[in-house]
Amino acid sequence: MALSHLSSTRSNRLLRPLAAAASSLCRPISTSTEPLVIETSIPFTPHKCEPPSRSVETNPQELLTFFRDMATMRRMEIAADSLYKAKLIRGFCHLYDGQEAVCVGMEASINKKDCIITAYRDHCTFLGRGGTLLEIFSELMGRQGGCSKGKGGSMHFYKKESGFYGGHGIVGAQVPLGCGLAFAQKYNKDENVTFALYGDGAANQGQLFEALNISALWDLPIILVCENNHYGMGTAEWRAAKSPSYYKRGDYVPGLKVDGMDVLAVKQACKFAKEHVLKNGPIILEMDTYRYHGHSMSDPGSTYRTRDEISGVRQERDPIERVRKLVLGHDLATEKELKDIEKEIRKEVDEAIAKAKESPMPEPSELFTNVYVKGFGTESFGADRKELRATLP
Amino acid sequence: KKTSLVVVRSDGSLNLNTGSSAGARRLDQLVTNAVAVSASLLSTSSTSLAVLIHELLLYEALREGLEEEMDRDNRVCVMGEDVGHYGGSYKVTRGLADKFGDLRVLDTPIAENAFTGMGIGAAMTGLRPIVEGMNMGFLLLAFNQISNNCGMLHYTSGGQFTIPIVIRGPGGVGRQLGAEHSQRLESYFQSIPGIQMVACSTPYNAKGLMKAAIRSENPVILFEHVLLYNLKERIPDEEYICNLEEAEMVRPGEHITILTYSRMRYHVMQAAKTLVNKGYDPEVIDIRSLKPFDLHTIGNSVKKTHRVLIVEECMRTGGIGASLTAAINENFIDYLDAPIVCLSSQDVPTPYAGTLEEFTIVQPAQIVTAVEQLCQ
Hints:
Chain B: GO terms for molecular function: metal ion binding; pyruvate dehydrogenase (acetyl-transferring) activity. The structure holds two protein chains of two kinds. By secondary structure, chain A is an alpha/beta fold. Chain A has helices at 2-25, 60-85, 100-109, 123-128, 133-140, 174-187, 206-218, 237-240, 263-280, 307-317, 319-329, 335-358; strands at 36-39, 45-47, 55-58, 115-117, 194-199, 222-228, 231-232, 235-236, 255-259, 283-288. In chain A, α1 crosses α11. By secondary structure, chain B is α/β, with parallel strands linked by helices. Chain B folds into three domains: 6-56, no CATH class; 57-236, Thiamin diphosphate (ThDP)-binding fold, Pyr/PP domains (Rossmann fold, 3-Layer(aba) Sandwich); 248-374, 3-Layer(aba) Sandwich (Rossmann fold), CATH 3.40.50. Chain B has helices at 39-42, 58-72, 96-100, 112-125, 143-151, 153-156, 186-189, 203-215, 264-277, 295-305, 320-332, 354-360, 364-374; strands spanning 6-8, 14-16, 53-57, 76-80, 105-107, 128-132, 166-171, 196-199, 220-225, 232-236, 240-241, 248-251, 256-260, 282-286, 289-291, 308-315, 341-345.
């Protein structure tokens, strides 16, 4: 908290002369790839391992990409919020705003052959893995153009080519699946890793410890990432967990606690974790993050926490603001340019929504496709061996 | 080693699948029941070559199928409790760990939820794991993974992922194993959309179904029975698979159709002997495919005999027999002369005492009585 206050005053001091000069300078946004070394806001807390250094190497282009990606995600989630209230998105809609730094930082340190698997708060992770806004909004509205053809919904986004394995509704069930992905990577001798994300609520699931035991036993290249947003739906972490240090829960498995609102810290931690895991077996990363919305759209989010808390975090730890300050502080772009980026993003999102609204609903025959894979041994989908005879409206 | 693949249909006719060695080989009629083979069947007929067969027990047949598939495709791996160094609690995987190594035959800790989930996760990437439950009842702990992830991922991902996993294990009522180790899970799994269920009953169909299940792109649950592992039969040397969705005609007949699967097949065949002596001619069909039902074979049989008796080991409530009764009633009501009778186990936890355990499941005498009543 103290550090962010410092950086804000520093950027204020820097901004004043710049603001005056900006209007007359017309300098383009920096796209240089010269390395820039930035210190993370707080040090990493290790458990049974050596923490990585606080100095993160990045470059202006990367920082601006971070800003753009996170701003797109933020805008997308807020647009999803209004679509839900307009009843275009139904069912459950779990929004990720506030936690964008985790998925953006993770993406920056890995490639598309590494696998990511997460729970139901997956819109932004899907976007980070190469999904398009159109696919996301179409799927949320249940249209044909969606990534799962409209049949999955908010909690079932997948992208096999980019190594994104979903999108799972049952809390904790994705962690054994993640271990299976890591097992396949080890089986195929891939040199890639799997990131299995789960929340602080899911950290109390038994299958997690089962999967952890097997992964540690078989040296699987898996990184378990606990996105600790401090609330398991409506229950605060201190009311659900006897030991809220989720990074220590692995006991014999090393762990690292990371400030999940600092995208550079996340990037550093994931890079460190990937190297560690390919040599030494599993590791647990705890990302200390926060969600501004409630658990889902049906949860107001204010019955179990105060509005002051939410706005406090928004003011002091917001990941996008932090990157904005870095960018302005290092004179990589002006305020106006960043605002222009945000306007552009807003327009992109609105266009994607409009296009998604035009996408048709799935055909009635789609009800029966993809239940089984056609081919060896399977010739039917109904109880009889002929095509289903019922005709649908 | 021959590589042509032969698909053998249950009535003994065959489809040569790879068009190799044009027409030169014809196989003699293959034995499809577990009763001792009479010498006359083995004698070579004038136009065909001798059948190469070997005799083995059901668990050995399963192992053979498993080994052949593991040899053929190195993405196939087995995971389960005690399948590796111990050789499998029912010896199905004996020797495989030595042959294929620890990465392909994996001893897991006792964590069904986790290793079933792991199998499904590995299958999502393209591996073909076989998950063994030491007893089917233990897989109840993995029900979430089987139902939500195994069955539904192909659908909810819009077809992006296929889950070519095989989940197998022994279930059913054994010899006084107690309530928790005598469960019949086919009734719990039958409504999960997206999975296929098959039950093997003879060494011949055990090997064939195992191979077909491994090659299938869909998740398949293969139900074995604790008491059938030591059945002996002669099976062909040649490679063969059984169709996953086909029922097996055990004994053709005219008067009544008896539908059964797994161990109850033997109770039915025993009852059939008595029935034949009494002058009845039952048609016995081992349905083999529990999901989806082979209504083609069943329907043809119903059209012929007009009477149906279902004998199963599942509980009465919500069992396979209940679904089968509904399916036959819906599709073939015009051909039925009498209501369908379904003989199932009693809706009780299986007791330990031997005599009580006998009363829980269907016995041949009950089958004979039911047939006599139906055929009046």
